[in-house]
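Subject: complex prediction, re-run

Hi both,

The earlier run crashed halfway through, so I resubmitted it with identical inputs.
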Amino acid sequence: MRILSGIRSSGQLTIANYLGAISQFIALQNEHECFYFIADLHAITTPYDPKTFSHNVLDVAAMYLAFGLDPLKTTMFLQSLIPEHTQLQWLLATITPMGELERMTQYKEKTHQGDPADVGLFMYPVLMAADILLYKPQAVPVGEDQVQHVELTRSIAEKFNKRFGETFPLPEPKTLDKAFSRIKSLQDPAKKMSKSDDNQKASIGLMDTPEQIRAKMKSAVTDSKKDIVFNPNKKPAISNLLTIASGFSGLPITMLEQQFKGASYADFKMAVADMIIEKLTPMHEKYYELIKDKKKLKNLLVDHSHKAQVIASETLKEVQEKMGLAL
Ligand code: TYM
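This time it finished cleanly. Structure:
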């Protein structure tokens, strides 16, 4: 099966990006033909600093590799190196109804937060549809917040196939384990954990130090009563922490409930912090090694982008021909 997914290079990635996306990417690479990319063109739809931007891109590349993405098995490319993405975006925009884009939750949330509602933010899901459809993948592993965009991609693909002839297989949003598809904020379990949250304590960054992780866990909100049980309706905060603990330790939630029976919330939170630290420490070591050689990382991205572009340009040509754009 062909798999494709991407991550925006906007600021520090969080443990939610790891549990909801990166850990799945790694798990899928042995069985499938995988394409994972860095969505730098999506990252510029929110405020950013051009001076540090290329560092953010290499940062994501180093993190993919440090977590175990194998460049011999997987194609890891950079979106902006492949102009076919923006070319196909325009073609798809001509068959995408405004109303469907206006309904996108992420767009509505961002505009409500007061971000400038520019056309780039509005077109974001059409670029995402182009990212996906260029490679004709069967599945797209994403967290819950991106499922709506993958569904829109299916609807654009269906419309294209109907109007211009069978071209795109319909991609499925794929979540390996649904439990990790919506990790919640440590400060408010009603909200998702997000790298753009203004409250620094709401999320744990993948590059946070052990001290920062312990401090954030210490201040994580808990629920009423004292028992450590999984019940997302009655105990949303503790259930979120149990989910995080399960993702980082690899242990099932029922086993963790047993293990922490009778423990205080404070002790439980410190134990979860330790599980995260144990996983992230070896990743940090690899990351710092990889980021030393920026040229090597850059060459890898360029090289893999060339490989991806071969497929992208074939699809674009097919689309242009079907749309009557070829002379
Ligand atoms: P991004 O960079 O916001 O997030 C990267 C991945 O992390 C997942 N994620 C979460 N998973 C679980 N719990 C959370 N709280 C959580 N927060 C984020 C996201 O669902 C995502 O899978 N538009 C995309 C990038 C993109 C893309 C694509 C993805 C661009 N083109 C094509 C797939 C296919 C984004 O901004 O993800």
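The CA atoms of residues 13 and 125 lie 21 Å apart.

- K.
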